[in-house]
Amino acid sequence: MSTTATLPITQPDAASRRKSILLVFACTILGTVAQLLMKTGMDPDHYKPELMGMLTNLPLVAGYALYGINTVMLVLALREGELSVLYPIIALTYVWVTLLSYIRLHEPPNIYKNLGVMAIIAGVIVIGRGGRK
To answer: Are the C-beta atoms of residues 34 and 96 closer than 8 Å to each other?
Structure first.
């Protein structure tokens, strides 16, 4: 008769869960900055389609670097938090990108974008309230 050892799954404490939520929230900000830098890097004044042109495109390279840091931060946050609570918070990146696109890139707002932003915010609130207490 063989015995199988199992490791107990420990539940993170409230402080660890809060830390994870804050880290994911920071990821939304970092991801937004990364996307805006990549968009800036694709501007015709910065972008040159050859390899050296892309490698020397500072906004583009900075955007990709921030995206990499963002990914590492997300992995660290997922260690201690509930995936079903944390992952929807990442949708806030769409909110920040939309708002900053209005402000920094002078993109025109419209009712559909604004309704989408409101739906995302409402969804994050609802899902966040449904997490483990």
So the answer is: no
Q: C-alpha dihedral over 58, 63, 66, 72, to 10 degrees?
A: -130
Query: What's this model's pTM, rounded to 2 decimal places?
Result: 0.79
Q: What mean pLDDT do residues 79-104 have? A: 91
Q: In whole angstroms, how large is the CA radius of gyration of the chain?
A: 19
pLDDT surpasses 80 at 2: no
Quickly list H helices, the chain: 14-41, 51-55, 58-80, 83-89, 92-103, 111-129
CA 43, CA 93: separation in Å to the nearest integer? Answer: 21
Extract the tokens encoding 90.
């990442």
